[in-house]
Specification:
The protein is α/β, with parallel strands linked by helices and about 325 residues long. It has helices spanning about 20-25, 50-65, 80-90, 115-120, 135-145, 165-180, 195-210, 225-240, 270-280, 290-305, 330; strands at about 20, 35-40, 70-75, 95-100, 125-130, 150-155, 190-195, 215-220, 255, 310-315.
């Protein structure tokens, strides 16, 4: 697939590491060999997967002459942090609309990403109740900014549209190149599945390249049926946008909802175990909202023999460790 025809800013200059996790694998009983794709090490303030998506989205914004970026997310949104970070690098204003998905959870003085929003110099933050029409809220702000003579560009939550998903089509191709160069065989890939762009981009890249590597998503917010439908729709839109002529098979989209727990961003015992286990065996930090719950899913699936014994399983680390510092009580208790 020729992604060179799409403008990007060049934020991703080199492949992120693909590492073996021998001590972590042994802690899971040695049934499978777990590997990790370190997208937590991508450029951008404190790193994370949204840099791949924003590489394309910011290029589109600048192509359209934008001077302001509007985006949205939850109150500790890693996407908002990275969108703000790259807007600062590009000399653009950045406005954030935060959805208080858990009532009373927004605390301006909080640590984690809330602190980084202020440190990076966010232009404005608006907080809206959980369940709000986030695209509608962003469009209203865009209209206000246009009336003030500004040229705003709206990036959806998670940068999860067909433009942003190109970043994870590229990631899938990067993984395949790394496997070719190292001679490593991967039997299965596990990815966090939230706003759908990362999951959709990966499976579009795998299917579009006829890779033969199944991908399992671990959902962090929606019910399984809704999540799989969202991923399938975006994956197909992305393949169409690239111009592949490929039809995404519905059976290729798997997104478990068993590990969400009581709700988005709310801690679970499995997430806490996953974060602690990876930190204590491999010195790698997960985040409590996405990668932590996704790794909890991988751990449980290994224990349930979802992967055949001896399989090589690749986990996509999407980053987000700054959010850990907003969950100190969860881990200290």
């Amino acid at each position: 697939m020729n992604l060179a025809k799409f403008p990007r800013r060049g934020y991703v200059q080199a492949p992120t590491p693909l590492e073996a996790l021998p001590r972590f694998s042994e802690a899971l009983g040695g049934k499978v060999n777990v590997f990790i794709k370190r997208d937590d090490m991508l450029p951008g303030t404190a790193g994370g997967n949204k840099t791949r998506k924003l590489d394309f989205c910011m290029a589109d914004a600048l192509r359209q002459g934008a001077d302001s970026i509007i985006t949205c997310g939850a109150v500790q949104s890693n996407h908002c942090r990275l969108t703000l970070a790259w807007a600062v690098k590009e000399g653009l204003d950045c406005h954030l609309i935060l959805e208080e998905r858990v009532k009373g959870s927004y605390k301006p003085e909080a640590s984690g990403n809330n602190f980084l929003f202020q440190l990076l110099g966010v232009k404005s933050i608006s907080v809206v109740p959980g369940g709000s029409d986030m695209m509608g809220e962003m469009q209203k702000l865009a209209e206000t900014l246009r009336a003030e003579g500004k040229k705003p560009y709206v990036i959806p939550g998670g940068a999860s549209n067909k433009i942003g998903a190109l970043g994870y089509v590229s990631c899938a191709e990067e993984v395949l190149r790394q496997l070719f160069e190292t001679g490593l065989r991967i039997d299965h890939m596990v990815v966090p599945s939230g706003s759908a762009g990362t999951h959709a981009g990966i499976i579009a890249g795998m299917i579009g390249n006829n890779a033969g590597i199944p991908v399992t998503g671990i959902g962090v917010n929606r019910k399984k049926e809704a999540q799989q439908a969202a991923v399938l729709k975006l994956a197909q839109e992305t393949l169409n946008y690239i111009g592949t002529g490929v039809t995404m098979p519905a059976e290729a989209v798997v997104a478990f909802d068993d590990y969400v727990g009581p709700g988005y961003s709310l801690p679970t015992d499995g997430m806490v175990e996953a974060v602690k286990l990876l930190a204590s065996t491999e010195s790698i930090l997960l985040d409590p909202v996405y990668s932590g719950k996704a790794m909890a899913g991988l751990i449980d699936l290994v224990r349930k023999d979802y992967f055949p014994e001896g399989s090589n399983v690749l986990f996509l680390h999407t980053g987000g460790s700054p959010a850990l510092f907003a969950y100190l009580d969860t881990f200290r208790s």
